[in-house]
Amino acid sequence: MTATSLAPRVQGTVRIVGAGLLGASIGHALSARGIDVALDDTSPSQLRLAIDYGAGRRAADDDAPSLVVVAVPPDVTADVIQRELERHPQAVVTDVASVKLEPLRTLRERGVDLTHYIGSHPLAGRERGGAISARADIFVGRPWVVCRDEETPSADLALVEGLALDLGATPIEMTPEDHDRGVALVSHVPQLVASLLAGRFVDAPDGSLRLAGQGVRDTTRIAASAPELWVQILGANAAPVVDVLDLIAADLTAVADALREPDAPGARRAVADTIRRGNDGVERLPGKHGQNRRFEQVVVMVDDTPGQLGRLFGELGDLDVNVEDLRLEHSPGAQFGLAEISVVPSAVRRAIDGLESRGWKIASTTND
């Protein structure tokens, strides 16, 4: 029995303020579980679009929600939280903003009663925003930070954590300070680094860009994010972001100095240590199911014709090889792609031998 086959933990009406990507995605997921979702948004067109796509119904004045989810831009998050707490004093109010400390400070300075407020943040999203990009499954398997304090009623905490569990996410309790430092490192600074690198492409020769492979696409994927939203996020979490940027700036300066005189004593070691430290950092990132487990890759050439990926997956299943992860790379100007299949080390030889015997061409493996 899966988690989503159980009865929903959240009961009654859930009011969602903000029908963009996160708000509408929450609405889709809850509606699919039979929960009454009432949507509200200052943008009439955004609200209609979310309703048309099935994320919920239009909120009514006489709604009595058990839970209010605030999913609005960071610069108005505190205002909307305050309004919802005052309008629905019997409800638990949470928000899904990517910065937790700044709105909390603002609300405390205003003297707002925060007994029934719990800040939270699902570590999920897409490069494109809006109701049209919303999906019910974007939270599945993702961390959902819940920021409680000593005054938080246990029933309120259970409701917010129940929301995360109903959506397939994994609740993680953190303080607002720890959360903001964490997202600065793993979300906010990576956005800036990706944008800075992709910005170098603007004036690059076309010939250089034709050399781009999957590595640079992976590195710059999030550079397609909306500038308007990120100006607000980075401004609200400026201090932790600057702390990380200063460290990276020092690292870049050290590598640049080494490469200015690559034959100088210690220069090559400085470069090697930089790459090796990156290796060590990657090893610390949780893998599938949150495990620090590494997989090996088998790269298979796949014809760019309908049904080929399905056939590849089917034959891997016949070989009793589980696909732990998948990455696709298309070769410019060629009628084939490269499917990088991640498998457990013990399955590598079985996958290679079995696929080659079935006519597949193996481009490379981790150990090549």
Describe the structure.
The chain is α/β, with parallel strands linked by helices. It has three domains: 8-174, NAD(P)-binding Rossmann-like Domain (Rossmann fold, 3-Layer(aba) Sandwich), CATH 3.40.50.720; 181-284, Orthogonal Bundle (6-phosphogluconate dehydrogenase C-terminal fold), CATH 1.10.3660.10; 296-365, 2-Layer Sandwich (VC0802-like). It is built from 13 helices and twelve strands. The strands form two sheets. The protein has an eight-stranded mixed beta sheet, sandwiched between helices. The protein has a four-stranded antiparallel beta sheet with strand order 10-11-9-12, covered by helices on one side. α2 links the parallel β2 and β3.
Please sum up the structure shown.
The chain has helices spanning 21-32, 44-52, 74-87, 101-109, 154-166, 176-199, 206-209, 214-220, 227-236, 238-260, 267-284, 308-318, 348-357, and strands spanning 13-17, 36-40, 57-58, 67-70, 92-95, 117-122, 143-147, 170-173, 296-303, 325-330, 336-343, 361-365. By secondary structure, the protein is an alpha/beta fold.
